[in-house]
Amino acid sequence: MDATDVGAHWEGNAETWTIYSRAGYDKYRDALNTPAFLDMLPPVAGLKGLDLGCGEGTNTREVARRGAEMTGLDIAPTFIRYARETEAADPLGIDYVLGDGQVIDFPDDSFDFVTAFMSMMDMADQREVLKGIYRVLKPGGFLQFSILHPCFVPPTRKNIRDETGEAVAVQIADYFDEADRIDRWLFSEIPAEERAGLTPFSVPRFHRTLTTWVSMIIEAGLVIEAFGEPMASEEVALAEPVVADTRVAPIFLHVRAGKP
User: Is the Cα torsion angle 185, 190, 192, 194 positive or negative in sign?
Assistant: First the structure.
């Protein structure tokens, strides 16, 4: 797959994704992943940031509310349209740009930081993405990104549940398989009667081992500063049981890396 293929898949997902994520069905994002990412994010007030793979802009807006001057970039026109409409209705000073994360079309040293919320594992050539991020970062700037955890969410993963339905273990396989693939799914909390009438998301995925990720980051010239592996608290797991499996093993990996 190349960027054109990836863009076509995400454009096909964008309408349904926006509607249902904004309706509160992206529980992993809202209850766990984004809050943990923002807790790990250094202070950004007064800084200029790029959100890579911004989608319809929910997370971009959260960073902007922390005082950053944000640009959001995404490959899907429908996501950008929704993001711009929201910016027009409730301005936060965000500039949303249609573009390809593998060819980041900004001048050198443009940004103090780059964020990428759950987007980089969906980009076909992460080496080129990381090189582009290094180029557009100012010296002393940083990249912070989240991905599916390469160790605990490889191409084959299954929750093992007890007789009550509680997740007690995780079965994984194909960790070393870095072949391109398409995952098809919907947000699990969408009611069954609505799911029946929806086409599942078609999500390009480019799994890389942890070794590959670390190697690519280092090859790009970035220096790893922090890792995060979000786990739902007991309170969050009780309030949103769908995320309780993150108490068995992490689903997400957060990485922060700096440009010297």
Answer: negative
